[in-house]
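BUG-248 | component: ligand-complex export | severity: low

The export step for NAP jobs runs without errors, but we want the raw record kept on the ticket for reference. Input record follows.
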Amino acid sequence: MTRILLLGGTTEAGLLAHALAEAGLDAVYSYAGRTGAPLPQPLPQRIGGFGGIEGLVGYLQAEAISHVIDATHPFAAGISRNAAQACTTTGIPLVTLQRPPWQAGPQDRWTHVADLDACLAALPTRPARIFLAIGRQTLAAFAAHPQHFYLLRLVDAPAALPLPQCNAVIARGPFAVEGDLDLLKTHRIDLIVAKNSGGDGASAKLTAARSLGLPVILIDRPVQTDRPVLGSVAEVMAWLGHAALRGV
Ligand code: NAP
């Protein structure tokens, strides 16, 4: 019997959820519960952590899961590691659905850095106006560089922000180039810091940066070598042994 655990929280996970539902497959969509109002999905949902590797092993066994699909964000390394360990322990097949990273074009002024520490080291010393497009979780690290103004874009309004000079825009993607051009101009941004998430939903800021000639510091994604990584919903459906649906 096929019963799928879909680890979600991304645009790709939503697309896959629709394909699984339309194919009539038995699947559960799992959210970490990081945002106040997660988008509804066309599958039964569960919300919240499993309790580490042990908790996930217990869940997989109790729910008689036959396949795990890790469609979490490329930077969600903890849950991806846990999924790999839990699937090894239980012998359940695991696959990752992940969009490819963004690639610089000739007009882009990108500096690639390996991780957050390298990103902090690459910040300028002179005060800059930075669009810090990295989500909420690692903002506090930038407090060590208080000379900069930081523009943040967050899904939920924060209770408090760990940065002395900042402004938070509350918005959920996908974002459009025109809106991001406006944002960069209105806040007189001179540098963008972003994760190399890939995909279309958050690439508008890079297109806007290109057209304004702005530099970007792009943090590389953590590497996953412990499972097959597939780039499309169609490939995941084929991996499950189901023909991909047209238009997905
Ligand atoms: P993480 O560091 O890899 O995960 C931390 C813990 O959160 C995990 O150990 C797990 O708790 C729980 N968790 C994460 N994803 C889960 C899921 N889909 N279902 C159930 N539990 C989950 O992840 P993160 O970077 O905090 O990201 C959390 C979620 O937000 C992910 O699902 C990801 O897809 C989404 N997201 C992340 C980013 C990003 O930049 N990191 C951006 C956009 C969306 P237990 O150990 O208790 O099981």
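Assignee comment: Attached the raw record above. The pocket of NAP is lined by residues 7-10, 30-32, 34, 49-52, 55-56, 72-73, 75-79, 82, 135, 137, 195 (CB under 6 Å).
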